[in-house]
Amino acid sequence: MSFLLTNVYQALDSDIPEHATHPFSPQAEEACTKLSALVQSTAQLSTSLDSFAIMSWSKPKLVSLLRQQTITAETFHGTTQTIKHIANTLRSRSGTNSEYGEDIPLEPQAIAEWCIGRLQFWATSVGLEAYREDGAKAGLLLAGLVFAMDVEFSVDTLDSAHPKINVATVKTAYSGSSDTSPALDTFMARTIQSFCDELNKTPDVRDSKRVARLGSRVIEQLRYLRMLDPLAKAESPPEQVDGENTGVRWFTDMDKLYPVLEEFSRAEAAVVASSLSALHAPLDIYLPRCHALPLPYLVSPSITFLVYLSPQAYLSLKKSVPSPSSDSKFDIPLDLLRSHLCVPRKGATIRHSPALLAFWKATVPTFAFHARASRAPNTPEAPVPGPATEKEHIWILDFTHGGERPGVIMSQSRMREIELILHPLGGMDAPLTLPMNMMSFGTGLNPANPVSSERYTALYRSPSNLHPPLQLRLTLPEEPGFLLGKVPVHSMKELWAILEVVREQCWLNEILLGCHWSTEGIAKDAEDVPADDTEATEEQLAAILNGTTVPRKIPVNVSLPQRSESLFDTSLDPMNMPSGDRRTRILMTCPERPPASGVVEITVAYDETRSRGVAVEVTGALGSEVKTETMEEIVRRGGALGLAGRLWTQASS
User: Which helix (H) or strand (E) holds 139?
Assistant: First the structure.
């Protein structure tokens, strides 16, 4: 009985991650392991209970002793579970008091010394060596196996009552190599300075919780450097052997890769600006037409890629820009963009979603980061020789912002495309057709509503009351949805291809999230158009007969046409390649405005070949003379779901 209770409590204590049963989830392995253990425990419990049921219990004393033993075992396991929960909660604090705030000294003169002491404690807690500077110099030396980082502080004592501490310099050196990483030094200085800036505020303004959060960010960067350190050491030559230390590439290759990516993005921006006859490329047009924008050292010592920017996020950035400089290729300076995206923002897909190159254990070694790299990409059959083979690693695309977000909602067809990019000769047919906890594709439309539905409704109101409200009715595609978490990549070619697939999905997601959707049949009355209880007049009757009445709502059916199931013909014959359009599209249908009869069909498609990255086609709409360029501009500004109302208004004129 004690053994059964142990299995039961272990099963109850393990939280199985949701939607983590596909290979691109960061918790896929954990979920499969826990599910397997749960199935095994259930089988053991069923077998044991059956054996107890068929036994003949004729001794009351034995039954009493077994009951007492069960109560004792249950108390023991319950106490163990409580202690484990408390320990996990304390361990998750990661060295900072992020829930209650940092314990900042009350004396302003002691803050500078306390700040340096906290940095020293954080460095030692992640496994680095930390040494204080001798004498009156305020500084700290952080050392690992391969690198040494010298952090110097300056204490401003102009106001003796409130001295301020600032980061003077950060410089990193590597053993056996003359390479430097100025971008890494700047990033670490900026991260530590953010912590100091909050400390330098007066007690009535300073937020101790924000100080704790900024301290947690410093710990994350130190932990990342500590993680790269043994990998660099494994590739370093022995101390008695002369030669360049090639292992420092783990720290310096980002500085070599980014100039190549930056030059490429500037060239693409110049082409976009030239096609629009503009001095600067609009960022919201550049992103759908070109490759993802690289932003190194945005939130970690790696490269972040900006995949998509919603119209609302773009316009908010545009309003805060007085005028871009002449040497900038974009209408939004990258410095302003970096300061805006350093924290998770609504409407900005940086993977991290943006796409963040993060660190992940896998069965495939690392790849060469830039074209001039002498190290060729490795395969599982040809692992890296030496100690590195004991624990191989790979770079990944992280779509969870370091675990702060669940990921990107992706359709099944796009998940197949990503799998085919990584494994051209394979696919996800088997894994994705197995019974698993899959979401409905519309789960993200209304996360607060647990009811899954095939259809959702929303009311789209014109901000300027240009047309009556649109009653949108969305029919979901017949395919499941998945949360894309982390994807391993082996080359920049795979990275670009995956981000292009994610970009189309983000474009579709942001358009659908432009309205508040409710499950059909349970919409709230407060969101609907109020009913008109007044008596009808002769003028209203005449307007109905003449076809000039203004309806309370305009019904619009919205659907997402599915793309072709297969990417290519099974016979692999180039002459039999399907010619179907695989662009992401939104199809909207609504009735013609009276007195005309018929149906208006509006198709909004993602098209990187168009000047604004979208294509709009209209069938019907008699009497409407809205230009295609005008409708594409409306879609660019976030009004895709309101095109039916625009056409209705134009028909009246």
Answer: strand 139-143
Q: Quote the CA–CA distance of 434 and 464 in Å, as a whole number.
A: 49
Maximal C-alpha separation, the chain:
102
Q: Find the Cα–Cα–Cα–Cα dihedral 523, 527, 529, 531, rounded to 10°.
A: 70
Cα torsion through 130, 135, 136, 137, rounded to 10: -50
**pLDDT averages per 10-residue partition of the chain, 653 residues:** 67 63 65 77 79 77 83 83 80 57 86 92 93 82 94 89 92 89 92 93 89 90 91 78 76 86 92 91 93 88 88 88 78 86 64 38 29 32 34 71 80 89 66 42 54 80 88 88 84 88 92 88 61 70 71 90 56 46 86 83 93 90 78 92 89 64
Task: Give helix then strand counts, H and E, for the chain.
Answer: 16, 20
645: tokens are: 């109302």
What tokens appear for 110 in the block? 């002691």
Selection from 187, 157, 155, 182 nearest residue 171 by Cα:
182
Identify which of 301, 318, 300 has the alpha carbon closest to the alpha carbon of residue 309: 318
Determine the Cα angle at 240 with ends 236 and 244, to 5°: 40
Q: Where are any strands of DSSP class E within 193-301?
A: 293-296
- The amino acid sitting at 514 is G
Measured between alpha carbons, how far is 608 from 406 in angstroms, rounded to an integer? 28
